[in-house]
Design goal:
Chain lengths: 243, 319
């Protein structure tokens, strides 16, 4: 077993991961029900609400939070962090394994919502290929940025879950999304920018960062890489023996 | 102009040089210096004395607030490679519950640079007596079995230095005996082994050298006998069997070498703060009075009582 295999197994089968999985599952089911039962004229607003607001703004942030923070919190709480730090494995590889495992787990757990919303999106007049590609790109990039942020948070504070929840609710959902001036400081706003690719820029039906689609994607990728590097620098400095 | 001679570089596998560690206002370890050499060294101290902090510093899990730690010539905090020659049994019970004992030991051996990690894991599990349970998930293991998995993972990469934090916790008496013997053998093989414990009788059976930590300070260092010798001036109780206990008790009190006497038939129990003076004066007084000394034996000379006295003497020091 590799360090990545250990990290993935530890995250995939945790009770908290299974508990948070109900959120994207429920949203995916709702999206499919709307696709099957609603009038096609409602698809546009339903896709905007479920994709732009719920998937990018709420689901990915909360799923990434629970999984990203657990990446190191579980080791700390379970008393296995000292064992992990008693290996000669370079610390960047441990962080890299944790980041990759948290990112993949976040995407897998969010997949029911992504698929359901994608099915809903293909019911409207948008280009099907663009709907799926923008949805997948937005999911992968937003999850990467959020995951890196919350993995770093778990290395900085023992109260990562509470701090992260406050960040998501206060900043991402309440302030940076609705307030135009703060939008370029929100992870979700860049994610929505990528998700909004099928529409003309002035017709995107949700709040987006004030940049182009490609720049929005690059910002998320760079943010994920930078936060990951900070996590790599942070791991050797933590007190592995502290409970 | 001639250059100042360089300070001699210690060849000891583990070196702590003026190491202190504090958490906020709490001093966990205060200005501790010592070197560990091949063989088993016992690290004694009550809970909270600073034993686990010492091991954490050596394992590189935490940084010293002051001073330097070197293990096999490296800084264990900055150089993870040191773990290829260092095995650690942490105090925490943590193991990944979804892994089997074999997977756990194999994983950690491979992460410490062992090429044939499977074979190394098999040998280590056999050495700690866990062969039969090797393929069971550790989630169902007793505390003692978990302790053995932790010991196996510390041995699998054949390290030169072993740090064992309370390794006998949770073991039944038979397992304790087996592990005491195993740790002695590890020391005899030329490894540098540090075993922390608060159970002195066990440490005495394993370790040729002892370090006593009280309130974050190293208060005694040496062999068990040497540590007892450090305590010559502490109050001691001595039981004396003679043909006239009442008379000998009176003579000792009059001489001033004892401050309390208790009679029990032909036996006399005396308390003294001057053990050396008593040892000198007792035969003289008995000979002058024409008394036979049948038996003279100290009471409470086990290491436990010595440790209690050291702890008491150091109370209030540090924290």
């Amino acid at each position: 077993m590799t360090m990545f295999g250990l990290a993935l197994r530890a995250l995939l089968f945790r009770g908290r991961t299974l508990a948070i999985a109900f959120l994207p599952l429920a949203i995916g089911i709702v999206a499919v029900i709307i696709r099957l039962a609603a009038d096609p004229v409602d698809f546009d607003s339903a896709y905007a609400t479920l994709g732009g607001n719920l998937l990018i703004g709420v689901v990915l942030s909360l799923v990434s939070l629970v999984i990203g923070v657990n990446a190191f919190d579980d080791e700390r709480e379970g008393g296995t962090l000292p064992l992990l730090m008693s290996t000669s494995t370079p610390r960047w590889r441990i962080v890299g394994a944790k980041l990759a495992a948290a990112w993949i787990t976040t995407v897998l757990v969010s997949l029911p919502a992504v698929v359901g919303i994608g099915v809903l999106g293909t019911g409207e007049e948008l280009d099907t290929g663009k709907v799926w590609s923008s949805l997948l790109a937005a999911t992968l990039l937003t999850a990467a940025a959020y995951t890196a942020l919350f993995v770093l948070l778990s290395l900085v504070s023992g109260r990562g879950l509470f701090i992260g929840l406050a960040y998501v609710v206060i900043w991402e959902i309440s302030l940076a999304g609705p307030v135009t001036a703060l939008r370029n400081l929100s992870v979700a706003a860049y994610g929505r920018r990528v998700l909004g690719a099928p529409w003309a820029e002035d017709l995107v039906p949700f709040n987006i960062a004030d940049v182009g689609v490609v720049v929005g994607g690059v910002v998320l990728a760079v943010a994920a890489a930078a936060l990951g590097l900070l996590a790599v620098r942070r791991l050797p400095r933590i007190d592995a023996a502290a409970g | 102009m001639t250059a100042a001679p360089a300070a001699p570089v210690s060849t000891a596998p583990v070196v702590l040089d003026n190491v202190s560690k504090w958490f906020g206002d709490t001093v966990a370890l205060s200005d501790v210096s010592y070197e560990l050499f091949p063989g088993v060294t016992g690290l004694l101290g009550h809970n909270g004395a600073g034993k686990s902090t010492t091991l954490s510093l050596m394992a590189g899990w935490t940084s010293p607030s002051q001073g330097t730690v070197r293990v096999l010539g490296r800084d264990p905090r900055a150089e993870p490679k040191v773990h290829e020659g260092l095995g650690v049994v942490p105090d925490s019970e943590g193991l990944w519950p979804f892994l089997t004992a074999r997977q756990t030991v194999e994983l950690l051996a491979s992460q410490r640079g062992v090429a044939a990690a499977g074979a190394a894991a098999k040998a280590a599990l056999e050495r700690v007596g866990l062969t039969e349970a090797a393929d069971r998930k550790v989630a169902g293991f007793s505390k003692g079995m978990r302790q053995r998995v932790k010991l196996a993972q510390a041995l699998a990469h054949d390290p030169a230095v072993l740090l064992l934090d309370e390794p006998l916790n949770g073991l039944d008496p038979a397992q304790r005996r087996a592990d005491v013997e195993l740790i002695r053998r590890l020391g005899a093989e030329g490894r540098t082994v540090l075993v922390s414990s608060h159970i002195l009788t066990e440490v005495e059976r394993m370790a040729s050298r002892l370090l006593v930590v009280v309130n974050g300070r190293l208060v005694a260092e040496g062999t068990a006998e040497g540590i007892r010798d450090l305590m010559t001036d502490r109050p001691r109780t001595v039981r004396i069997s003679t043909d006239d206990a009442r008379r000998l008790g009176g003579l000792l009190l009059a001489d001033g070498v004892v401050h309390a006497v208790e009679l029990e038939g032909e036996e006399l129990t005396v308390e003294t703060a001057q053990a050396v003076a008593l040892a000198t004066r007792l035969p003289v007084l008995a000979r002058e009075a024409g008394l036979w000394l049948r038996r003279v034996e100290p009471v409470g000379e086990d290491l436990e009582s010595v440790f209690a006295a050291l702890t008491s003497a150091a109370r209030g020091v540090g924290r």
